[in-house]
Amino acid sequence: MNQRLEAVREYTGGTSELGCPEDLRRLLDSVGGHAILLLDPRGQIAAWNEWACHLHGYEAAEVVGQPFSCLYSPEDIERGKPARDLEAAARDGRLEEEGWRAGKDGLMFWAGVVITALHGENGALRGFGAVWHDLTQHRRAEAAQAQRAAGESVARRAQELLDISTPVVRVWEGIMLAPIIGLLDSQRTQQLLEKLLQAIIDTGSSVALVDITGVPAIDTQTASHLIESIAAVRLIGADVILTGVRPAIAQTLVHLGIDLTGVNTRASLAAGLHAAIESLKPSPRA
Amino acid sequence: MDERISVIRLRGVLLITMPANPDDSTVTVLQEHALKVMEASSDRGVILDISAVETLDSFFARTVVETAAMVSLMGGETVIVGMRPSVAITASQLGFTLGNVLTALDLDRALDLLADPSRERHRG
């Protein structure tokens, strides 16, 4: 890019050797993807390459002699940005930034911009070189990616929350503990079962303690999810002891007519653990 | 005999391994085979390995329960081994029970179960 601007700076008119104005014009027109403009010190457009036509929709004849502010967005024009950009480029030698540029039909595109101050041999300002390219695709892709990342972050948080709410712990060799805090809905039950069943298989556990000490009250939904969970654990070949059945829970279960006769139950987690450890001891052979 | 079911006699027990998506005819073959072998030998029972099975439909479940009942009538027991968590969860949600069929976590435990009649049993 800098080499191209060097060529613009050093051009002298009127020879037919390589480097004459015709060649340089051809060079500028050959550059794809970048609009290249030559501006006089006041910011009027002196030269305009082919890609600039493509990006903005104006033919050279339409813009040469016009102030280059016409290529900025209406808001930027109102705020005096074009003049400020030229001042900054004159002061610092170069301005590099991203900003909106406007096309003939009013359509905006997001551009990567470089404006360079061009000085003559005596050091006087001869004008500016302005080069920009369309970053709109890039920006759209960035925005889409940011949105996706935000969405993924939210989903991850939700999953983490769900994970924390259904812990599964190996509490003894061959014994898994699933303490349930609160009530069980379908989603939590699914989450709990996936974790518990896999943990039982991975550790080769024979018994799962499902502890409901932390369940404030049994409603029919929680009760049926509990029964489902017990059935699922038995289907994969482990046994279940339902622990933490407090008096209030026992009363509710009977009043609701819930049949847990096939299920091993205990009033406290401690009692359940004790029973589980006993059951794992090898049975005496006859 | 269907190629996809593998049947092995091992330590006085019939080990049948089911393929991933058993169709109805495969399932029927399993029943016939189990009973034929029970008749020919004095095997203690049948171990059905379903660790490859991805979905358990009602026909399969019913056939298993029926087969277990028949095996029981012929003096043996049936143990299901290796049910996948996803299958177990779906089955429990649908209220499938396997009746009096025993379940075991792995083949080792299934063999122990059938070898020792006094051992505590889990029924599905």
Number of structurally distinct domains of chain B? 1
Mean pLDDT value of chain B? 83
CATH fold topology of chain B: Transcription Regulator spoIIAA
Task: Give the count of helical stretches of chain B.
Answer: 4
Helix content of chain A: 40-55%
Structural class of chain B: alpha/beta
Report the span from N to C terminus of chain A: 92 Å
Output the helix-strand order of chain B: EEHEHEHEH
Helix content of chain B: 40-55%
CATH class of the largest domain in chain A: Alpha Beta
Number of strands of chain A: 10
Overall number of strands of chain B: 5
Helix tally of chain A equals: 11
Q: Write out the CATH superfamily name of chain B.
A: STAS domain
Largest sheet of chain A: 5 strands, antiparallel
Count of all domains of chain A: 2
Task: Briefly summarize what is shown.
Chain A is α/β, with parallel strands linked by helices and 286 residues long. In chain A, 45% of the residues lie in helices and 23% in strands. Chain A has two domains: 2-140, 2-Layer Sandwich (Beta-Lactamase); 165-280, STAS domain (Transcription Regulator spoIIAA, 2-Layer Sandwich).
